[in-house]
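Protocol step 6 of 9: fold each sequence in the batch and record its structure tokens directly after the sequence line. For illustration, a two-sequence batch is reproduced in full.

Sequence one:
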Amino acid sequence: MHIRHILYFTATIAAAGCAGTPGPGDAGYAYNVDGLYRGRVMVEGTPFDASLDLRMARGGRVRGSFSVRAPLEIDGSVSGTVVDDLLRVTLTYESAARAGARGPCESRIEGLLTVAAGGGSIEGPVTVTDCGDPLPGRMSFRR
């Protein structure tokens, strides 16, 4: 009887030790991003009010959508990865044609954003490529 209890106790301790600390996307990970975030993208001093709707999977993979409503309307998709407290993110959207261009073009916003503990805010520098040369910008969002 004693041996059975010792074996059970040893197996329980070993299983708990293998569980380790949670990683990106696991319940309890301090820097998970999930849900609706509202904020702003600043590009060359112009603010764009925007929202991000994010879903995070195990391993830190992030997918979702984004929208801008002012000063113009844009809808697009979000993909990225969380590692530690950083979100490497790419937002893609179709932009209206510029003068001299044939039809719309695929545009993107890329950045490495800092995630606050608890995932309540994300912010950082971005590069915006909208039918032309890349422009520096900054994103700041809160859940």
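Sequence two, same batch, same settings:
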Amino acid sequence: MSTDLNFRMTDLEENLSSDDGAAFKAKVLDRLVASGGIVAKKMDAGLPSEDFKNAQLLHQALAAAHEVVSTFPVQEPEQIKS
């Protein structure tokens, strides 16, 4: 039985934990912000009631994902070289 506590559950977590984690994190956060902006624009432009509710949920999910990813600790490039 393995006692390796460095187990990663998802590809996202694996990529964030890699040596390139800081760059990957920045890309993911940029995509989440861009996607949130697109959803917000569609909501502002007006959507049918059911679509608007779904867009609100999507916008909230993107914001929650941004919060989770932004708090994930990554090694900065200068930390890797040490």
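Proceed to step 7 once all outputs are recorded. Observation for sequence two: The first helix runs from residue 11 to 16.
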